[in-house]
Amino acid sequence: MIPPPTTSTSVSIVDLPVGAARSADGRTWIVSPTRRTGPRQNRRPAISAAYAPPMGAPPTTGPTRPDHDRDRPEQGRDGWDLRRWRYFVVLADELHFTRAAARLRIAQPALSQQIRALERQLGVTLLHRDSHGCALTGVGAQVAGEARRLLAEVDAATARIRDLVGGRDGRLRLAYTRSARGGRVDALVARFRAAHPEVEVVPETGWTAPNVTGLLTGRLDVAFVRPPLPEAGLTCHTVDREELLLAVPVGHPLAAGRARVRRAEVVGLPAVMWPRENGPGMFDRTIAQVWPDGGFHLVRQEPDDEQLLRAVAGGDVVAAVPAGRARALKVAGVRLRRFAAPVPTVDVALAWRTGTTDPAVRRLVALLATC
Questions:
Q1: Domain 171-238+348-370 has what CATH class?
Q2: Whole-angstrom Cα Rg for the chain
Q3: How do residues 24-79 score in pLDDT, each as one tens digit?
Q4: Phi/psi-derived region of residue 11, left when phi > 0, alpha when psi is between -120 and 50, beta in every other case
Q5: What angle do CA 75, 79, 82 make, to 5 degrees?
Q6: Confidence (pTM)
Q7: CA distance 144 to 124
Q8: Domain segments of the chain: what residues?
Q9: DSSP for 313-351?
Q10: Is 227 helix (H, G, I), strand (E, B) or coil?
């Protein structure tokens, strides 16, 4: 005989026989009948909300889970074993233990044991069994519907998580650099979008310096920049390299002729440039290649390449500009000339935080190998 618990809170459930019934993990539910208020068929037992330990076990201060429960596959909330729900759904479809067991690729006795364990855990009869097969009880049919919906949600959530971990879902916060669009940069992003259409690419455009700040603060995932970058903690991979051209007014002496411009011809010429703080690495690299022996005479600053070329068109200054951007803008009144060897160049690179585990970033980086 099982002694009654010292304290318990009773909640009614249906179809549980009066007495003690063990749960699937070996613990014992304390069951007591409700007060008799009507005919025998209307009496319903009540089940204690508190667990009692198995008979002979030492007392505990509250509900515990055996160590082996922690390793049980597909455990749902409150100890529900999702595997049993899957077995029950297949059995509800087949209504035949042998066929259901074959479909599940398990032994028929094992299936029967799992279904009975589920019934004990629920405290209801889910199936009517006979020699010809089985049939769902009324509550069994309702439980089967709920189980199908539950498993569909679990499977959908699992697929979403796998996609997220695999970089096939989520967002990629990406920044372009103002001086480099088109060419391999746009081609790389287009390939990523085509390969991973479910990833939301959130683009913006900025100078290299704010793009680097966005990476370091975590506001951006990846950014196109103009190297070199002095900041630690970032990894860069060159995506493209382009030639620097000399932009001169159409009436300037250097605008005539087909010969390439020598470095000595630009020494001391009034020049226009964008602010160095926009991209210190590119600024310094440009000056070092175009005016290697000095003679850079900065007389004006403009915020971007378009305004820089418009300043050149005014007839007062010259500028060194990336070929792609200069040719794309096609500002009237400007002649673009090539430099003599060694040809000055600037790079555009993709940068990201070193050691990132973001799946979308890693998949974009993987595409760099084929650029």
A1: alpha beta
A2: 37
A3: 444 434 333 333 444 444 443 333 333 333 333 443 333 433 433 433 444 444 56
A4: beta
A5: 40
A6: 0.57
A7: 13
A8: 1-54, 75-165, 171-238+348-370, 241-347
A9: HTTS-BEEEEHHHHHHH--TTEEEEEBPSSPPEEEEEEE
A10: coil
